[in-house]
Amino acid sequence: MPSPSTDPRPISATIVTVIRDNQVLLVRRANPPDAGRWGFPGGKIDHGEPLLDAATRELAEETGVSAEPLRVFTAVDAFDHDATGALRRHFILIAVLCRWTAGEPVAGDDALEARWVDLKALNEANLALSLDVAEVANQAAALMSEVPS
User: Fold this and answer.
1) CA separation (Å) from 27 to 15, 30, 80, 85, 97?
2) Residue 49 within a domain
């Protein structure tokens, strides 16, 4: 089997979208791709691990927050390139909408920081976001507005 850095196959991972009081839970990533940028908690799905289980596990590991997974609602590509521009890894990030149940964010595992961010602040230039974060967060907020309390 090829090593992860030479394996040409995409890597499946989950991103967890938790919306609460017009805010979205974000982490500042510690590792590539997008180290230092703000994105959703998440990570690789373990072999044999159900997607929704991976989402709740990654959320707890990166933020200490608990949430109820509601549904998958979109997927996005994330490409990790080296300094020369060569593709190292291709991730397929599967977005899971979750309802917050307990806890306040504390950075853990692969996160430098974790916090609630006002949805309106996602369009501000001073917040270094990973690709598609604002769009996915707005989709999640629209879906949460349709979910019964």
Assistant:
1) 11, 9, 18, 25, 16
2) yes
Structure tokens at 123: 């369009």
Whether 5 is covered by a domain: the verdict is: no
SS (H, E, C) 45-79: CCCCCCHHHHHHHHHHHHHCCEEEEEEEEEEEEEE
Q: 117, exposed or middle or buried, with CB in 10 Å at 0-12, 13-18, 19+? A: middle
Tell me if residue 16 falls in helix, strand or coil.
Answer: strand
Q: What H or E segment, with its residue span, contains residue 99?
A: strand 87-102
Look at the pTM and tell me if it is higher than 0.85: yes
pLDDT one-digit tens code per residue, 92-130 = 999 999 999 999 999 987 889 999 999 999 977 688 999
Per DSSP, 32 falls in state: S
Helix (H, G, I), strand (E, B) or coil at 3: coil
What is the domain extent for residue 87? 11-144
| Residue 131: CATH number of its domain | 3.90.79.10
Is the CB of residue 72 less than 8 Å from the CB of residue 94? yes
